[in-house]
Amino acid sequence: MPSAVNCADLFVRFTLTEWHVPSMVDDVSDTAKKLVHAVIGSVVQGATPTMMTVRLRLRGDAVAIEVEDDRHTPKLTVPRSLGGKRSGVTTMGRGRQLIWCELPLPTGLDATVVPLPRRGTTRAAPRRSAEIDDAADLNNTVMQRILDGLRKDDPTI
Fold it and tell me: How far is 22 from 14, CA to CA, in rounded Å?
């Protein structure tokens, strides 16, 4: 759980950069952190670990930040700091909870014009062994950066 806030922050920053909406990164990241804190703040010490899912959705003229919690208790509540925004808690099947908040897209943008990334339709050609070695080095570097980012708020990890 200590890394959940940092993971959500990295996810939001990456996704909004991919969507080419950099002006929203700070607001959406702050909102996602508050929603994740609402979930992990209610965790009882010694409780069985569960899954938490963070999602971003484009809806009309807004981006929705959703955090889904597998637990059915305790009942989640929207943080007071998000009180003036369109937000809520929804109970889903099997008692799962979804806490969410919507933020308006910048003026002139809506879900139909945000340039979402497209997956490629062709497979990459096989790499030669030297390229594979370079990729392995790159993967180690990327993983170390991710771990450093996750640890930035908790020095005991």
Answer: 10
